[in-house]
Amino acid sequence: MRGAASVDPSRATSGRPGGRRRTTLGRVLDTVLLTAGATERDGRRFPVPAGSPRRSLRSCAVAATPAVRVLERDGAAHTLHPYDPEHPSDQGHGEAAVAALGADPHQVFKTLVARVDGTLTVAVVPVAGSLDLKALAAAAGGRKAAMAEPADAERATGYVLGGISPLGQKKSLPTVVDESALGFPTVMVSAGRRGLQVELPPADLVRLTKARTAPIAR
C-alpha cells in the first residue's frame, strides 16, 4: 500500500477551465480577524489588548461557518485568514491557500476524507505532504483505507470539496491529525469554505475534533 500513489482530492481543479493566472501572489484580502485570544506567528506572540472583551470580533466581510461557530462557542483562540480562492487548474486547494497567504506548507493542513474498512474517517495532513493510507488505517485501528468519493465526503461533512474543515462537520467522524501538527505553536486548516483558513493551536484542533494524532503523512 505504501508504494501505491494515493489520490488527493485537494488537488481537484478549481472549476475554471485552464485556471486563472494570478497577477499578484494570492491577492490576499486585507481582512484578518483576531478572535477570543492571543495567537503566535514566527515565534512572536500577539496578545489581545488589555481591556478587550473576551469574545469574537466579527466582520460582515466574513460569514460565520459551522467551523467558526464551534470555535466561537468554545472560546478557543483563533485567527481567520480570508484569501482569494481562485487558482490555476493544476494547483490543489491547499497549495493555493499556502501561495495566497505566503504560509509555510508544513504548517497549513488539508482535510481529507477516507474510508477505513468502509468507515468514513477524516485525515488532517500538511499541505507539504500527502496522506499515507496504510498509516491512516493503522492509526484508526483498521486494516485497509481508501479515499472516499467526493460526494460522500461532502454529504457527511456538510462542506464542499476544497472547503472541508475538520471542525463543525455535519456528522462527527473519526479524525486523525498528523502528529507533525504538534510541533507548531499554531496551524492552519480550512475554516469551512473555499478562501478562508483558520489558525489555531494544534492542541485545540485535536481537542475540538476529538482526534488522535499519528504519523499519517509522507
Automatic annotation (TrEMBL):
<dbReference type="GO" id="GO:0002161">
    <property type="term" value="F:aminoacyl-tRNA deacylase activity"/>
</dbReference>
<dbReference type="InterPro" id="IPR007214">
    <property type="entry name" value="YbaK/aa-tRNA-synth-assoc-dom"/>
</dbReference>
<keyword id="KW-0648">Protein biosynthesis</keyword>
<comment type="similarity">
    <text>Belongs to the prolyl-tRNA editing family. YbaK/EbsC subfamily.</text>
</comment>
<dbReference type="GO" id="GO:0006412">
    <property type="term" value="P:translation"/>
</dbReference>
<dbReference type="InterPro" id="IPR036754">
    <property type="entry name" value="YbaK/aa-tRNA-synt-asso_dom_sf"/>
</dbReference>
<dbReference type="GO" id="GO:0016829">
    <property type="term" value="F:lyase activity"/>
</dbReference>
<feature type="region of interest" description="Disordered">
    <location>
        <begin position="1"/>
        <end position="25"/>
    </location>
</feature>
<protein>
    <submittedName>
        <fullName>Cys-tRNA(Pro)/Cys-tRNA(Cys) deacylase</fullName>
    </submittedName>
</protein>
<keyword id="KW-0456">Lyase</keyword>
<dbReference type="Pfam" id="PF04073">
    <property type="entry name" value="tRNA_edit"/>
</dbReference>
<dbReference type="InterPro" id="IPR004369">
    <property type="entry name" value="Prolyl-tRNA_editing_YbaK/EbsC"/>
</dbReference>
<feature type="domain" description="YbaK/aminoacyl-tRNA synthetase-associated">
    <location>
        <begin position="95"/>
        <end position="208"/>
    </location>
</feature>
